[in-house]
């Protein structure tokens, strides 16, 4: 990425110059700063960070339910929570947490807000359902990307999510339309070519 001359020039900087340069760069890259803080200073483990975020997610979903206005606003709340998960992963590199926290988010959103979602006209839920299906696909892709021995850890939550899909008629129709086989969730059996399947679905204009 950097040529030899540039690396040598950096190496030859004084410690004071290096410190100033690092601090200047960190001020411009908050994600990098947070990641370095976590790796070098923070006393909390990845698991502890994951637990904390899981509690925050539950609290935010409960709050979204208490002030429910529309499925559109609920979708905005979910996107913000997804951002929290993404930030956690950027800082901690928590691959298992990325899966478990996304599963938690979808399960709690569909469970707690069920009455409101079902009371909304299906046409007003299209973007919401598309997002849910896309996130379910992402979860399957993430699981496939790690050691398959971990699949057993997510089997129960995958089945729960699959049954929630079954309990929403229009969400199920949307899943079928967008190429998501809910049996992959129910049976915790992910196709070997899930990446190619997902890529083709996206190329054909779905999940958008």
Please provide a brief summary of the model.
With 208 residues, the chain is an all-alpha fold.
Structure write-up:
- This protein has helices at residues 4-11, 15-28, 30-40, 46-66, 71-92, 95-112, 114-118, 126-145, 151-167, 169-177, 183-186, 194-203.
- The protein is 76% helix and 0% strand.
- The protein contains twelve helices and no strands.
Strand content bin: under 5%
How many runs of DSSP E, i.e. beta strands?
Answer: 0
Uncertain spans: none
Mean pLDDT: 90
| Major beta-sheet overview | none
Helix/strand layout:
Blueprint: H1 4-11, H2 15-28, H3 30-40, H4 46-66, H5 71-92, H6 95-112, H7 114-118, H8 126-145, H9 151-167, H10 169-177, H11 183-186, H12 194-203
Helix pairs in contact: 3-5, 4-5, 4-6, 5-6, 6-8, 6-9, 8-10
